[in-house]
Structures are given as C-alpha cells and as structure tokens.
Design brief:
The protein has helices at 11-46, 49-76, 81-84, 86-93, 103-115, 120-134, 138-145; strands spanning 148-152, 155-159. With 164 residues, the chain is mainly α.
Length: 164
Amino acid sequence: MTGSQEVAGSIPVLLQYDGAHLLSTTAAFAFTFFLISLLIAGLLLLLSPRLYRRVSLATRFAFLVALVFLLMMFLFNSFLIPDMFAWLGRAKKSRSRLSLLFPPLWFAGLYEWLLGNRDPAFGLGAAIAIVSLLVPSRRRRAKICTIEQTWTDIGPTFRTDNYG
C-alpha cells in the first residue's frame, strides 16, 4: 500500500499513518535539537565566556525573530504557501541535488517511505534523514546534552564532563 492509497475505517492503516507521522516528526525534532546544540557548543568552544554571553543572546534573539516571522508568514499568507514551495516539486521531478540540501525534505521522505511510497527521491531523503541522526556518535551526543552551566563573576562559563 502506498502513501496515496486510503482505506476508510481500517485500523492498521490508521496505525501505519500515526506511526509514520510520530517517527518522522520525532526524528525531525531530534535533528533540530542536535543542530542547535551543535551551534551552541561551537560558539562555546570558539568564544570567551564574556563574548559567548553576548553572541549567544544575539543568536537566540535572531532564532526567535526568524521563527515568529515564519509563523506569522504562514498564518497570514497561507494562500501563498503552494507558490512558495512550487520549486520543491520541480526539484523532485528533475532529481535536482538542490533538494538534498533542504532538511525538511529528508524527513518528508522518511514519512513517505514509512507509508510505503518507494519513490527513489523519497528513499534518498529517508536515507539522509536516518544518517543525519546517526552521524553524531553516542559519546558526542552525551557531551552536547550534558553541558553544565556555572556562573562566575564575569558571566557564564561552561564545562563538559570528560568521557575519555
């Protein structure tokens, strides 16, 4: 059964759709979490504590403004959404490498693959989504997740436990 077929009143199909949705959105959230954690850890390693405090505040503010802007754009201009993303359909049909640089398509590919759609573009997106979550080793994920914040007289300093 492919993702485009529907069987009204079928519990297994409902469970398949729910499971695919749960797994793909959880994977997308995990990717986003680790990407933002990687950005924070990179800033932490590159900047002094005092400079980190300023840059971190500006970075978080920029993320917040961008997310609010996107939310407002989608709420008030929802009729423009098909036009804004028309290039994605053309990129998929033409097998453009540009579509491989767009992470939401990876997880949409994972969703479609879990529903049984065996289109090669979706399969490649699903493979990239899975690899993107497996790339950070378990030890590195643990370091990113366990950054401890301590305060000194000049501002925040950070340390990570040494896992060897």
